[in-house]
Amino acid sequence: NERHYGSLTGLNKDEMKKALGEEKVHQFRRSWDLRPDPLDKSSTYHPRNINTYKHIPVDKIPDTESLKDTYERVIKYYIEDIEKNFINKNILISAHGNSLRSLCKYLFNLDNNQISKLEIPTGNPLFIKFDGGNKILNCEYLDTERAKDLLVY
User: Fold this and answer.
1) Region for 6 from its dihedrals, namely left if φ exceeds 0, alpha if ψ lies in -120 to 50, beta otherwise
2) Residue 152, pLDDT above cutoff 60
3) N or C, where is the chain less crowded by C-beta within 10 Å?
4) How far apart are CA 22 and CA 19, in angstroms?
5) Is 127:107 a contact under the CB 8 Å cutoff?
6) Entry pTM
């Protein structure tokens, strides 16, 4: 899942900027450990009120998340369910921007300042070649014309 934006859930960027100001929205979207206010549990947007999440215990469903919270959730899954399957396999990961930013922080050992500046182009796959373990040998965007200057290997 994408990051849970708490009370900002259901608002588009322009609505958020009008309500909170551009600087505050930027802080929520890019800071490492700043969470928006929690989403009211009675909101129709709250995951506990959406059938897709009915199988998840309510104590495991957050009311809001920071990028740090998203990182902890994504990397736990990555280590337990993806990383161990690397040997001699091609693996495709498709995810939302904050999940991918979290994964890049882990894979490229980015610090909290670097992750706040990380830009990921939409719909441009990043091909990462590993050494057979967890060491990255090379990475490149498939569409070099739309590539962001993120990582140098």
Assistant:
1) left
2) no
3) C
4) 9
5) no
6) 0.86
